[in-house]
Amino acid sequence: MRHNGLEKPYNWMQVSTWIILPTLLLQFFFFASPLLPLAASIPCSIAVFFFGALAAYKGYTTCITDPADDHVICHLNRQNEKTFVDEEKAEEEVKYCFACETNVHSHSMHCKFCDKCVARFDHHCQWLNTCIGEKNYQYFFETVVSTCLLVFAHWACLTGIIVAYFIGWDNGEISGTEQRAKDWFGANQPNVVIGFNLGFWAFDTIAEALILQLLFFHLSLRKKGMTTYQFIVKDNEKKRMESRKQMDTKRRRADHMKREIEEGNIFGRMALTVGGWKGCGCIDPIRREMREEDRAAKLAASKAASRRSEMEHVKHDDSDNDTKDGITVNPIRLNGYNGDNGVHANMGKNGTRNAADTVASDASSISHQ
User: Fold this and answer.
1) CB within 8 Å of 250: residues ≥ 6 apart
2) How far is CA 214 from its chain centroid?
3) Is 348 exposed, middle or buried (0-12, 13-18, 19+ CB in 10 A)?
4) Is 115 left (phi over 0), alpha (psi -120 to 50) or beta?
């Protein structure tokens, strides 16, 4: 069982993050910052190195935080798990994990990479080589944001350098960027320096697009209150339903086509054939039939829900009326006889009998008889 992302075994994606981050900072320090004017070099350097340090810190915090389920931690520490469960909310649901050999929270999932149950499992991040769950999701999200800002700041600085260089190069004059490249490196090869920056600019463009996609994806998940795992499960279920629907459509089309052939209906066969083409769903009799069935099912479900709501409302009103009258109906079975001659009731303190007095009185009357 791996407790955090800094434990072995490592993977190549995790190691690549350890290489890429310092490489970006070193490239900026040696090849980008010297080509900027002094007025721009200082603030740009501060921004790039600040976002770099922030991304490293947030990523490290995400890795060292153990997202394991609290029940698993207690089980590993040999603590009294029953005492721990008693301290939790009584209504909280748990389930048994055969891999961890202990009860876990109902929202926990077992990660095959880390071999442990993770509280509110989101996903296993290959870049950080750790599970993302309830305990470290916020750190992970902040890592994505800070990395996005780092790559954008690096990309913006390289964009300014490249644009300034080619503007002067196009005018046939030595630009300030080209002159600074000659003065700083002393190799008199400004084209090589700009080409090196251009390569990192292309890398930043691709990386920023991918990170932004990940960032917007998690923003949408946070808005919906979902985890990545829940999204994948829901998406797979949607795909399975679509697959079943397509299979049902093909089966119905084949049955209808067979019937139309037997009846010799040429127009019906044409409608079935053309309706199966993309963009021709409006004239497809099969899909029209399925849409009508869906509408009927939704209408029936709506009516059933409305009836349930009305019944609950009536039941709630009856309960309120009984409470206002100070009487709570309590049928009592006495010697195999359900005392319906009267409905025995629990009375208040207003000089009326309670249920025990009523039972005693009824028993006495039966014995006298």
Assistant:
1) none
2) 12
3) exposed
4) left
CA distance 177 to 38: 12
The residue written with tokens 């209906």 in the block is 265
Reading phi first (left if > 0) and then psi (alpha if -120 to 50, else beta), residue 2 is in beta
Is the CA virtual torsion 118, 122, 123, 129 positive or negative?
negative
Instruction: Give dist(CA 107, CA 119) in Å, integer.
Output: 7
Sign of CA dihedral 65, 66, 69, 71: negative
Element (H, E) at 203: helix 190-224
Give me the count of residues in the chain.
369
Residue ranges covered by each domain of the chain: 12-69+108-226, 232-323, 330-368
Show pLDDT as tens, one digit a residue, over the chain (369 residues).
Answer: 888 888 888 999 999 999 999 999 999 999 999 889 889 999 999 999 999 999 999 999 999 999 998 888 888 886 555 555 555 555 568 889 888 888 898 889 999 999 999 999 999 999 999 999 999 999 999 999 999 999 999 999 999 999 888 886 656 666 777 788 777 766 667 778 888 999 999 999 999 999 999 999 999 999 999 999 999 999 999 999 988 888 888 888 888 888 888 888 888 778 878 877 877 767 778 878 888 888 888 888 888 888 888 888 777 766 666 555 554 444 444 344 344 444 333 434 344 344 334 434 443 443 343
**Residue 264: phi, psi to the nearest 5?**
70, 30
The structure tokens listed for 35 are 């080509």
Q: How far apart are CA 81 and CA 75, in angstroms?
A: 7
Are 249 and 289 within 8 A, CB to CB? no
